[in-house]
Amino acid sequence: MGRFILRRVVQAVLVILAATLLIFLATFAIGDPFASSGEKAVPPDIAAANRAKFGLDKPLPLQYVIYLGNMVRGDFGIDFEQHRPVAQMLEAAIPNTVRLALVAIVIDILIGVVAGVIAAVKRYSFWDVLVTVIATLAIGIPVFVIGVVLVANVAGWGPFPSVPRSFTVQVPWYQEVLLPAFTLAIIDAAFIARLMRGSMLEVLRADYIRTARAKGLSERTVIGKHAMRNSLIPVVTYVGVSLGVLFGGAIITETIFQYNGVGYLLSTAIVKSNAPVIIAVVIFSVVAYVVLSTIVDILYAFLDPRIRLN
Amino acid sequence: MRRSRAAASAIALTAVAAMVLTGCSQKSNQSTGGSGQTAVGFPETQDLPPVAGKPGGTFRLGITEPTAIDPYNAQESEGILVNKALFTGLVNVKPNGDVYDGVASKWEPNADCTAWTFTLKPNQVFSNGEPVDSAAFKRGWERTSAKASASDVAYHLDEVQGFAQMQDGSASTLSGVDATDPNVLKVGLSKADCEFELRTAAPPLAPVPTVAGAADNKTYNDMPIGNGPFKMDGPWQHDKGIKLVRNDSYSAGPKANLDAVEITITPADTGIQAEYDGFNNGQFDWARIPTPLLTQARAANESKNQWISKKTAGINYLLVSVTTKPLNTADARKAVSEAIDRNAIAQGVFQGSQVPADAFIPASFTNAYQPGVCTACKYDPEDAKKLAASAGLTPGTEVNFQFNTGGGHEEWTAAVKQQLETNLGLKVNYSGVPFKDLLVNEQQPNATGLFRAGWTADYPTPGNFLQPLLSTQAIGAATPNDVANGDNRGRYSNPQFDQLLAQAAGTQDVAKRNDLYKQAEKIAIGDDMALIPLFARQQFRLANTAKFGNVNMDFWENPTLSEITIK
What we know:
The structure holds two protein chains of two kinds.
Chain A: H1 2-29, H2 44-53, H3 60-72, H4 86-121, H5 126-140, H6 143-153, H7 173-204, H8 207-214, H9 219-247, H10 251-256, H11 262-271, H12 275-303, H13 305-309
Helix pairs in contact in A: 1-12, 4-5, 4-7, 4-9, 4-12, 5-7, 6-7, 7-9, 8-9, 9-12, 11-12
Chain B: H1 10-22, E1 58-64, H2 77-86, E2 91-93, E3 99-101, E4 104-109, E5 115-120, H3 134-145, H4 163-167, E6 177-178, E7 184-188, H5 196-199, H6 218-222, E8 230-232, E9 241-246, E10 260-266, H7 271-280, E11 286-287, H8 294-301, E12 307-320, H9 330-338, H10 342-348, E13 355-356, H11 381-390, E14 398-404, H12 410-424, E15 427-433, H13 435-443, E16 450-456, H14 463-470, H15 495-505, H16 510-527, E17 531-543, E18 548-549, E19 565-566
Parallel strand pairs in B: 1-10, 14-15, 14-16
Antiparallel strand pairs in B: 2-3, 4-5, 5-7, 6-7, 8-9, 9-10, 11-17, 12-16, 12-17, 13-17, 18-19
Helix pairs in contact in B: 9-11, 15-16
């Protein structure tokens, strides 16, 4: 078991390193961020001063090594626009994104599992068809459509705050997070419903379920206690990975709802070609994803010994 | 020039539809008339009658995250909005170039305008109680021009003696600025400038208190202490908002009426849409409008007096490489200009929200605007053909035409290309490139043809159009084979024009100066067609005039926060 964990951790570190190198190269391939900054040419000496400040005058491999060294110490440099520490910007954005991701996941699971179980238990019934149709539709609708429709029609009504709103309007975080979380949850919930239905149907055919029924257990106990538990395993994997993705920030949803998370930070940075922020957010997203999927892998190995043997 | 972050790409969507519907090749019968004024475009609105001020109220609006609000680096109109609320410079300006007093009560140049004396109002203080004396201005100017500050906008001070030494790091004080008398600021210039006082209204020339420290002082960057009609209520909450409250110790002018101004940060790429949405859902009291929604916004708000439409100090034009073939003669450039049907594009692509230009100096300069000075700005395909023939611009001639992508310029530039091909039979090599590449291409000594360009003025003077865009000095290349580092990348050079500008810079009388500017414009645009004016800049806003009075647009296209009052 120890060796398995070690192997997974080493893999994770390698993936993170490779990802940082790629994003670093990609960002700087775009070109000199100080070449010009509007319709007015930036005076050459000012551009040079900026380059020196950001170490852009050094060779690229050296820039990368300097960057990695600083990153390990939690220093992501300062951004091009306002010269603020990027670590601070991330620090402010991460809790918002984590909240959004957790609420979205809870909504996912609630809707997805319930819909999936109903569809499986009442197979080929009206409810099954309804779940399948809605799930297929939900997977097909682009997330920005859902977001824009919610902003235009639901925001500003009842418990849902207006978008945009004056920043001094105080809104409790759980109200602010509701609509974006719901937007994010719809597609995942649809996937989970499909996943849950499939795995539930498989489990329901298993011998031990027949045995449980033969013992005279109530249908409720058979489904709730015996069948659901085992059919949740693929859902747990999916949720783990999905959480990793969500922690990395939801660019479209956060931007539509003007929600100050990691995704919003990234979209703003891209618009302004603010390379240090782009690199830092992407690295954070990669780390969040790799760490969570590694944890899921390891947990999975605990749950199902066959994985380890493979 | 100040930067505008507004993504205009949304124009593209409706533009496509509009071109299909209206047919871009439609002929316009609107005559340009004797005055040169055209009937195309949304009319300007008049300011509503002033309302007596009374304290109270919170004015709310959205802006995209500024680069800086600290004077040393405040640059785009968003940053200037906050900065001008927090700081008052030596003088204030009106959109048409009229100057009125700020901290200075009196200002006068010497006979040849190379030295200026500003007399400060007594007992001026920053909101922390520090005195606003001549030393505070010297401090601010040195902070802006210091090499270590790496300010993007230090060029506002480039006429001050000792600026070059500050920029290269060889000096730590601006030798041209004398602050020995706390009530008098003396400024020595390295070249004559009889309009230097206009520059002192720019944010980078604001005074700063000693607590400002160096330009990298994060505390001050985020919560500047100034001498303006408002002060910060807590530090700038990045990506969230900025709250200002009235500065009750303000004495450089009338105190503000509003209790507070709440400025919410909107998304970088969809900020204008957010402002508009926020106005419609009652969250904001002032908003810009996405171009595709202008007609709709006007219809819904004009009758309620909530619609503001103003010509401002800006121009959209085609930069022309005037030193290389095929557009190296005035006739060739005039042929191109007369072959462009500006009215059709204004109506077809811009739905009337843009006004065809008939001059280079914008109409917002009421005392220098010369309607119709651009004689070749009228659509006349027959004359264009004659001019083209005489200039050797024969059918089939290749002409480069580049624009920058991502700015919503695709549709109207395509229409221009089509008109040049239809009316002159030219072979237009038309391409869209990223903005940075466009700039580099324009700078090259072998650049040829046409480039999309726009300009908004830093200071309300015609000189800020003529000098940086058309003077020989502003080419920024030592020899014709060098890259052009200045803003005159078309490399127009005419000694007579330069002479008139130099004369204007040394002329104290405003009327005479404007007259010289007019003559210069007549030569560069009317005779030489050094660049091709297309559309005058016009801005549109929505304002909550039901709740607030005195809501107008200032020179920087921002609301007049210090005058706004609750009704």
